[in-house]
Amino acid sequence: MLPDEIKPAMLGIVPSTIVTCSLAGVPNVTEISQVWYVDEDHVALSHQFFNKTHRNVRENPFAAVIVRDGRTFQEWYLEIQYDHSEESGPLFDKMDIELEAIASMTGMSGVFKLRAADVYRVLSVRKSKSRG
Amino acid sequence: MIPEKIVDFMHGGVLSWVGTRDARLRPALTWAFGVRVGSARDEITAFVPDVEIDQTRSNLSLNDLVALNVVQPITHEAYQFKGKLTGMRPSTEEEQAVQEILRAKVAALLIMFPPELVTGFIAAPSTAVTFTVEEAFVQTPGPGAGRPLDLSAGS
Q1: Which of B14, B20, B25, B121 to mutate: most A Cβ within 10 Å?
Q2: Global confidence as pTM
Q3: In this prediction, does ipTM exceed 0.90?
Q4: d(CA A1, CA A17)
């Protein structure tokens, strides 16, 4: 489902934005440092803190994210569904290293400890219409 | 009442995203280009470009719950506001002028990027989405993200 063209928007050059929704129906929007490409049907988000996003997807697995290519500002809209978490293994190790790299470049080294790689199934993907 | 210094922040060079959800609790996200805080500091109007408003409009016709995240693109200082919709209408010419001022502010902030990347977004026509603020949170990335803002204080 995910085209190769989207991969530059998943390099963490610029942050992404995510919305989740609690079981009570309240939406929650926040920035996240990166959405990782796993395979053409899955992406991964970092679980660093026990925050509202984390709590929401455990009670309602649906989320939507906007990722953006830091070179062109092309945005992509994704609908995703939480699938599982990985607390070790190749995906976790890759995300842990890249997260620390992002943190070190923003003066926040050591702040972003990866607890798990949260893997989501991609339900839909499309380019933003905002650039014509 | 939103603190004055955060109102000033929101009227500066910031980027904004609007979150809603449908009847099945599936959330949707879109961008807003420009926000204005009402004079009583308890209401926000976000200007959502019509090219990306369809799902947001559909969701807000079913329920009135709005979340808005406002982010400074260089420092990533961010605040989230949650509340209930009070109205949707086409943005006025004056509000489109506000959007153009914002475009210039953001372009000045993102000076390291080619200007056409910043100026190339289709922001108009847009819809003014107004909601009353019931909760607000610090949303700057890091361990403090999600901390509630005190809206009872007067300044």
Answers
A1: B25
A2: 0.94
A3: yes
A4: 20
